Amino acid sequence: MAAAVAHDVEGLTEREAAILEFERGWWRHGGAKESAITELFGMTATRYYQTLNVLIDSPHALAADPMLVKRLRRMRQTRQASRQARRFADGAL
User: Fold this and answer.
1) Secondary structure (DSSP) of 58-84
2) Which of 20, 40, 73, 86 has the fewest CB neighbours in a 10 Å radius?
3) Is 66 part of a structural domain of the chain?
């Protein structure tokens, strides 16, 4: 059994801390991620991802869970680079 890791949530709202917790293990929720987002947070997936993107730029989020926040930032950067490459390729045609 894996030991639980304590995360410092100082400076985060309850919702922000819950979002980080959800991102740590969203796959444990049955069904689609978007359905779990609506059920747990009462917001659309679009609004959730807008909130998450602001949250992962927060120094408080980074302090609370550096590994998770850095992973989420890398994933975002990869998606942005992929979108830019597609736009460039579409424009170059």
Assistant:
1) -HHHHHH-HHHHHHHHHHHHHHHHHHH
2) 86
3) yes
